[in-house]
Design brief:
The protein is mainly α and 109 residues long. It has 4 helices and no strands. The chain is elongated and about 65 Å long.
């Protein structure tokens, strides 16, 4: 399983745990149903936004969905990225890939 998928599952579990703790604190009839519904909507929204992000950057930068998903996983774990946005991170990786292609072509001649 990919790191991004694990991230989604982990955060969905946190949403549902929180959704079930809230009704224990505030005892009202039907609150558990509403909080679990909200947790489900948040999980689906997060899934949709990540899928749209991957699709957008795959189209913008000419990479496959798997490559963009891998870059997203690296971006989440990279402690040295500073204040780079994901867009800048993908741009930087594209420049790095282009430099790697240039050096392999130079080695071949």
């Amino acid at each position: 399983m990919h790191k991004v998928d694990i991230y989604l599952i982990k955060n969905s579990c946190y949403f549902f745990i929180l959704a079930n703790i809230i009704p224990l604190i505030f005892t009202r009839e039907g609150l558990a149903l509403w909080t679990n519904g909200a947790a489900l909507l948040l999980s689906l929204l997060m899934l949709i936004l990540i899928r749209l992000t991957v699709r957008r950057y795959a189209g913008d930068f000419g990479k496959s969905h798997a490559e963009v998903k891998q870059l997203l996983a690296e971006y989440m774990e990279d402690k040295r990225r500073g204040k780079l946005t994901f867009h800048d991170y993908v741009k930087k990786s594209k420049a790095r890939d282009a430099a790697a292609v240039d050096t392999t072509q130079a080695d071949g001649h």
